[in-house]
């Protein structure tokens, strides 16, 4: 069967349409979809890279700040306790206020860990006069252990809340002193400067 020129043109046109349809359906559209997927993934990777770079910069900045803080601790607070030693603190408090007051009570409260620093409060209730109270505060302010006075209350020892200018008048003082420790994993000292007697064992607190 011989095709006419018109039929040949139509057949060729139909063939082109089939080829184009096959190309679009099975090649172009899948490739386009894959390219779009890769573009989305590329954008995601780009965002993740930016976030990683930002985190890296933040980590480096935090490392610098940590070094600064560590240097500050060494230079400004080199007197902070290495380990929480209640026996040592008790003797320190006793020696700081001894001969300057009449001790009513000394109470240790539970320690609390904050940012790897151990803090603990000591409650002190004493009777003294204004002049000696100033000396006690000076001792705590210049102590070999870093501390802060978190609260205090002063009343007349006879019950009056009025404090006169008389430096010798007896006052009843209640205060909270907070001490800090690096909370390092160290053994407690077996030798204290106040252990000068014979106790029959190495550590009198065991």
Provide the CATH superfamily of the largest domain. Ribosomal protein S6/Translation elongation factor EF1B
Taking Cα atoms only, what radius of gyration do you get, to the nearest Å?
40 Å
Report the CATH architecture of the largest domain.
2-Layer Sandwich
Order of helices and strands: HHEEEHEE
Q: pLDDT below 50 for ≥5 consecutive residues: which ranges? A: none
Assembly state (oligomeric): single chain
Strand segment count: 5
> What kind of sheet is the major sheet?
5 strands, antiparallel
Secondary structure class reads alpha+beta
N-to-C CA distance:
116 Å
Number of helices, where a helix is a run of at least 4 consecutive DSSP H or I residues: 3
What proportion of the residues form beta strands (DSSP E)?
15-25%
Mean pLDDT: 78
Count of discrete structural domains: 2
Do you know the CATH topology of the largest domain?
Alpha-Beta Plaits
Helix-residue proportion: 40-55%
CATH class of the largest domain: Alpha Beta
Shape type: rod-shaped
Can you give keywords for this protein?
206 residues; Alpha-Beta Plaits; five-stranded antiparallel β-sheet; 5 strands; rod-shaped
Describe this structure as you would to a colleague:
With 206 residues, this protein is of the alpha+beta class. It contains 3 helices and 5 strands; from the N terminus they run ααβββαββ. The chain has helices at residues 5-76, 86-97, 130-141, and strands spanning 102-108, 112-114, 117-128, 147-156, 171-181. The radius of gyration is 40 Å and the shape is rod-shaped. The mean pLDDT is 78.
